[in-house]
Amino acid sequence: MSYWTTAMRIVAKDLLSEARTREMTNAVLFFALLVLVLFSFSFQPASDEERRLASGVLWIAFLFAGVGVLDRSFWRERVNECLDALRLTPASASALFVGKCVANALFLLLAEVILVPLFLVFFDLSFRGDVRAWLLVLVLGTWALVVNGTFFAAMTTNVRSRELLLPLLLLPVSVPALVAVVEATAAALLGEGAMRVWIQVLIAFDVIYTTLALLLFETVVEGT
Amino acid sequence: MIEALDSKALVFEGVCKTFGETVALWQVSFALGPGELVALTGSNGAGKSTLLRVAAFLLKPTSGRVLVFGQSRPTPDVKRRIGLLGHASFLYEDLSAEENLKFYAALYALGREADERIACVLREVGAEDFRHRPVRTLSHGMRKRVSLARAMLSDPELLLLDEPFSGLDVASIERTRALMVEWRRRGKALLVATHQAELLDGIADGELVLDRGRVRSWRAPASCGSAVPPPVRERA
Q1: Which domain holds residue A91?
Q2: Which one, of B202, B163, B181, lies nearest residue B52 by Cα?
Q3: Contacting residues of A for B71, CB less than 8 Å apart
Q4: How far apart are CA B34 and CA B37, in angstroms?
Q5: Which terminal CB of chain A, N or C, has fewer other CB atoms within 10 Å?
Q6: What is the pLDDT of residue A15?
Q7: Chain A residues lying within 8 Å of B19, measured CB to CB
Q8: CA-nearest residue of chain B to A21?
Q9: Nearest CA distance, A109 vs chain B (angstrom)
Q10: What pLDDT band is residue B229 in, cutting at 50, 70 and 90?
Q11: Domains (range + CATH), chain B
């Protein structure tokens, strides 16, 4: 079986499981929506400075949604020790990692597709800059969160306080990507600023951390 | 000697496994050949499950050597030749029995044979009637049968079974025993960890008894002969 077919099997399995239960989608969407609603009551961006602030609020909502998605991503493999069953198969560990990343990215992108229009309505905002470039930022930023988050979720899957440990590991590592997405989103909302530079930062971040995670994932899931 | 060990399905040579200060296995040595069934017994915490996990390459031994079909590393080819029935079911709760098997069949790259193989293993373990039911709705015994079907999916030559009779009714126990006899007849090597050693009376070729991670006794299958490394007795 090819590498990609294995990865896509993992994606299909995760999507089917989630479609049956909707446990993760419901919880994550509710939580992220709550963040947006609460912030929308606290301030309405009138000036450019406040618009810049709003871009941070949007990514805080995405970040909360992302941590929720990632925390649950290896939970399914932990129940009934399915991760061990995956390790027993001849499938490549890195194909498993890619599959989990793609599934997590799809879950998070789904949440983002729902949250972005609501964000624009709640904060009475519109994009003054290049929307297509911002969509690229959205995808690259989501992958940046997902690739590190999936790696750390696998690493902490058997740790008792994993809910606490996952954000503690993920957030510091993701700071460069978070700065880039917030700045790029601000540039898209304001219609000024160098979005291109931040896209380059995100591409570099994604390439570096995807490569590292692919190289190290097998070690992470191997037994002690 | 090396040639003799290569012909074995499973060889443990002075295997130790420790978790920090806790000794799970200490100087365990034995060999299991094709067409042999060995009972692995011992009280709770004796190290039976750890031994099976080490044999399946899920745990690395702290010291010593494990050979599966002459290989000390879990290559994809070796992995296809190992079937493990663990304590946990290894099944996804939200998927049906058949969906679980299809998923694993894909990871074992069974290709076009997958559907035929799934039908075959479900029939063998008697799980055809509930193949479309989600695993979360199955009883313990039903799950056990589906787990056994999953372990058999790649038609492995080495079967590592952890408590295969627990939670099964009398009819299912008889079916499982009959399957073991049939698998042994087909030349598969079976290592069966159980508290119900009497259920293997008459079908087991040998017995390995563990006591706090050490080999308390080792009755080797007759065919093992001199190729079997001598068991290390419990140290004072």
Answers
A1: 3-222
A2: B163
A3: none
A4: 9
A5: C
A6: 95
A7: 224
A8: B94
A9: 23
A10: very low
A11: 1-81+156-223 (3.40.50.300), 92-154 (no CATH)
